[in-house]
Specification:
α2 packs across α3. By secondary structure, the protein is mostly beta strands. Strands 1, 2, 3, 4, 5, 6, 7, 8 and 9 form a 9-stranded antiparallel sheet that branches. It is an enzyme of class 3 (hydrolase).
């Protein structure tokens, strides 16, 4: 099964719109071991300088956040609690914003996902969280800064799912008023949504 990356222009939409538009799209990672992919079923938006939950809050510019200050459509990967997480850089150059991909529904390469995540996992546990999906797809810190509109790590056209739901983001309890922003989006009733 071959996939065609979407064009760079897809990523040039406001961050909250991009977070919604990514639902249903296909996240693809090609590796030497094979290709694995999954439909994006959950995202979270982080709107940079004014968002206390964002790594770039207050325009914080570090080697880790540097990619967010560049053009949209690139991968921002970072490690949290030993897990690599993947974000889509959004917003115009100089406005460090991003969309975290929180969960995907497996599409291709499921056998590879079991090898990476463990044979004892139930299917819905393979990719139902931001650290789970990167391990299952083979996304690592080496993918930092990669354009998400060309192989080996890219987003391709997906499919239409059921209704979208909105709520507050997860795991940001210490971020003041930002913890209440309704900037988490997911496909209602999908069993791969993280929580």
């Amino acid at each position: 099964m071959s996939f065609k990356p979407i064009t760079a222009s897809f990523f040039q939409q406001p961050t909250l719109e991009l977070a919604r538009s990514l639902l249903g799209m296909l996240l693809v990672k090609e590796t030497a071991a094979g290709t694995a992919s999954g439909w994006i079923v959950e995202t979270e938006a982080y709107i940079g300088p004014g968002d206390r939950a964002a790594h770039s809050f207050g325009n914080r510019r570090t080697p880790r956040t540097e990619v967010m200050f560049g053009p949209p459509g690139h991968a921002y990967t970072y490690v949290m609690h030993t897990h690599c997480l993947v974000n889509v850089v959004s917003g115009p150059v100089g406005h460090p914003e991003a969309v975290l991909i929180r969960a995907v529904e497996p599409c291709t390469g499921t056998e590879l996902m079991y090898e990476r995540r463990g044979r004892d996992k139930k299917e819905q546990e393979l990719t139902s969280g931001p650290g789970k999906l990167t391990k299952a797809l083979g996304i690592t810190m080496d993918d930092y800064g990669r354009p998400l509109f060309e192989p080996p790590l890219y987003i391709a056209e997906g499919k239409t799912f059921g209704p979208m739901e909105t709520g507050t983001r997860i795991g940001i309890a210490n971020s003041g008023e930002a913890r209440d922003y309704p900037w988490r989006f997911w496909i209602g009733g999908n069993r791969f949504v993280s929580k």
